[in-house]
Amino acid sequence: TGSLVSLPEHAVEQPENTMVGRENEFEMMLDQLARGGRELEVVSIVGMGGIGKTTLATKLYSDPYIMSRFDIRAKATVSQEYCVRNVLLGLLSLTSDEPDDQLADRLQKHLKGRRYLVVIDDIWSTEAWDDIKLCFPDCINGSRILLTTRNVEVAEYASSGKPPHHMRLMNFDESWNLLHKMIFDKEGSYSPEFENIGKQIALKCGGLPLAITVIAGLLSKIGQRLDEWQRIAENVSLVVSTDPEAQCMRVLALSYHHLPSHLKPCFLYFAIFAEDEEIYVNKLVELWAVEGFLNEEEGKSIEEVATTCINELIDRSLIFIHNFSFRGRIESCGMHDVTRELYLREARNM
Questions:
Q1: What's the pLDDT tens digit per position in 29-47?
Q2: How far apart are CA 15 and CA 333, in angstroms?
Q3: Would you tell me which CATH number, out of the four given (3.40.50.261, 3.40.50.300, 3.10.20.310, 3.40.190.10), belongs to the domain 9-166?
Q4: What is the spatial distance between Cα 310 and Cα 312, in angstroms, rounded to a whole number?
Q5: What are the residue ranges of helices labelled H in the chain?
Q6: Is 223's pLDDT higher than 70?
Q7: DSSP class of residue 36?
Q8: If we measure between CA atoms, which residue out of 205, 199, 161 comes closest to residue 177?
Q9: Gyration radius from the chain CA atoms
Q10: CATH fold of 263-348, please?
Q11: pTM listed for this prediction
């Protein structure tokens, strides 16, 4: 099986790629991709930011059964501030000086005659779809395009009016299982009081996987301090509102406001990077050092201080690891769109 874009091996370890429950959704989507007619079909997943669209698409993309069904797979993220060229380069998995029309032609020739699966992640507009759709030939061989978006209009437009799959918020049992997996399974034994507060927190996260992931990062830092857990449980209930997008902002803001003062400017500095940009750690360290964000510590180099800051932000699930170097060091990192929305708001309020 050929692969234009291979997923990094560590992807499954990232907290945002932890999928709990949703077995029915997964099986249903797997069925849509692997079976059905021979004509090219666009299958869409719709849902709000942080609900797990990318996680589900990634799990489908790297499923062994899917890998055996398609000759070739390719994956690209579009983003709100998209650039056709970057999407084409992402799908071709290369860097090139060729003009866009030549890249589009190259992609079409590469896919022609082969049964392919293409994942187009996080597409925001019908114009973005119009700009790339002609690259995907219909060879009547069961090829599929899997699309994720927050916008139902985009999903229906791309899939010729076929109803998209709407990702639902998690129910209480799924929310609790996810929080349990991220905290209680990892951190050793907790007394029943912590489990009871954990259940309150899971309920108050409103079924949004991203909110649970972020809160789990916060709880893992606090450790077994019952009063702090209680305080977070009370704050979660204050910040949850009926509007899921605003709810998540408030849940994420809780994590931001809980950051130590030295980490806040480091976190807000991510506002200079583009949406979905792969952020290289060595570049980030240089920028932080120039800004004076890194306080010198006894017996530690500036790089070591920066690495500690990055690990702190990763542990709190505010950023995630993109790639490791051959030596096992974090080479690049990234951030979820909804988290990016949070720090842009916070940065504006400075």
A1: 999 999 888 999 999 998 8
A2: 13
A3: 3.40.50.300
A4: 5
A5: 23-34, 53-61, 64-69, 84-92, 100-111, 126-132, 152-158, 172-179, 192-204, 209-222, 226-239, 244-257, 263-268, 281-291, 302-315, 337-348
A6: yes
A7: S
A8: 199
A9: 21
A10: Arc Repressor Mutant, subunit A (1.10.10)
A11: 0.72
